[in-house]
Amino acid sequence: LGQSIHFHESLPSTNEAAFRLAADGAEHGEVVVTEQQTAGKGRRGRVWVSPKGLNLYFSAILRPELPPQRAPELTLVAAVALAEALRETDAEALIKWPNDVQIGGRKVAGILTELSAEPERVHFVVLGIGVNLNAGPEDFPPEVATTATSLAQALGRRVNRALFTASLWGRLEEWLDLHHEVGFDPVRQRWKELSSTLRQEVLVRTDRSELRGVAEDIDASGALLVRTAEGSLERVLAGDVEQLRP
Length: 246
Ligand code: BTN
What we know:
The structure is a single chain. The protein has 246 residues and is of the alpha+beta class. It has helices at residues 14-23, 73-88, 151-155, 161-182, 185-193; strands at 5-11, 31-37, 56-62, 93-96, 100-103, 106-117, 122-131, 201-205, 210-218, 224-228, 233-236, 240-244. The chain is 25% helix and 32% strand. A hairpin with a 3-residue loop joins strand 4 (93-96) and strand 5 (100-103).
């Protein structure tokens, strides 16, 4: 990962830049990095606040040998690598399903994967990661002021961006290789160890409905399994989770 790095002072979104490069034939492992984004994209159409110089914003181009329906596994691979890289700095990072990485219940990093595929074959995946490294409370807009944090805020000291980036890319490469060679199972096991969602009472909002219950497990494709009060086990592939305090 990162044998070829496309660095920019400013971009609308590294995901969009990487998507164009990949469509023009860029290779597996090429990475787009920027100092700031003017239109950083979050999941579900949200904005990813991307002030200059403080944080890490990048997108990696992947050309996995996977059928399209298994592509979502890569998001969980990235969440595991992120949580481990954060924990290496002594922060108690945990993963909230599916792929929010949090410290002390506040979001410190996000992952946005975008896919170009035919029914039978993945052309490429753009794996976009944003990590709040040195942002202070004043750098977050009021909408996320109480739900977001940065690694520096959690640790009480500034973080070296180059060192953190090198560590994260190393972990990502290790986990991507293991996933490629062995499959999803070790990723799923590690994800479960690092998860703050399992065994919790949750409220899940999907595009169509709301569901309440206890998050029991993730299945072999990364879907969340929720036991409802009525006793049925519901499978959730995509949605937002609110962890309710019992
Ligand atoms: C989320 O909503 O949690 C996902 C946030 C993903 C943000 C990163 S920053 C680098 C890359 N480029 C983007 O426009 N988004 C992702």
